[in-house]
User: Fold this.
Amino acid sequence: MFSFLWGLFSTDLAIDLGTANTLVFQKGKGIILREPSVVAIHSESKKVLAVGDSAKQMLGRTPGNITATRPIRDGVISNFEICEEMIRYFIQKAHSRRTMVRPRVVIAVPSGITQVEKRAVKDAALSAGVRDVFLIEEPMAAALGVGLPIHKATGNMILDIGGGTTEIAVISLSGIVYSRSIRVAGDEMDEAIINFIKRKYNVLIGERTAEEIKVTVGSAHSLDSTLEMEIKGRNLMTGIPKVLTINDEEIRKSLSEPISAIVETVKIALERTPPELAADIVDSGIILAGGGAMLKGLDVLLRKETELPIIVAEEPLTAVANGTGNALDDIELLKKVSI
Assistant:
């Protein structure tokens, strides 16, 4: 009876704790928050000054006594205290700071997470004031979010390209048969663009500019028409701001290394998939989710490399959050898929 009352009055949450963005799903309402996983802190007092959208605006623009940082790097917590503050902020914002009842929370984590990293995520959430924490692997959450029939005895392959990690998994009978996680994803692509612009033009650009370039003219395969974009950066020789015009072909070359790593990961996963499940994937194909799935031409390249059907999820950015929320709504399913 007591646990029933807890469930009745608490507002349970599902959190996609991403390297680039954090999404919060509230039971009965769907996704209620979508903000960057960025925290601005005072360097001396260590006081948190801003979280999410307002903190991201500060990236690369802060004075010496303020640091805008991402507490999650490559899919894992790099700064425990700051991550705890970030989780607390999102939970309080989701509850509009009104309720005193501690929620139950389901958090999506990378499939390659270690026991130490699992404990760090759980501890950060518990310290932030939640009642109970469940962890679900990101590819499983993404599969639930895109509506794959994970409970059936058929092979389903999903590729989730986030900010810090790329996850690939083969799922059957509500379990992960094979999974692989590599720390090559959106952030690595941004870094490749920054390095390319620095090498070719001797111009330094920031993380936010690199992300804009990736979204606007970035591609994994040749396009029907040329895309161009004007960017601004600092000339490393003179120190004076400079304006450049870049095109999709240049950026495609700069992204070749991280894209090749993702393609290779898909090929390894296919090689290690049991034959019966591999036969199912020939028919059902590979589902793409995560922000990286939106890179122009990625589906075309993967189709060419694997000769399999490649389907981009309808809402790739929210697949993990929606899937985590679906698990939250079904306690029996949550017991099956949580780790």
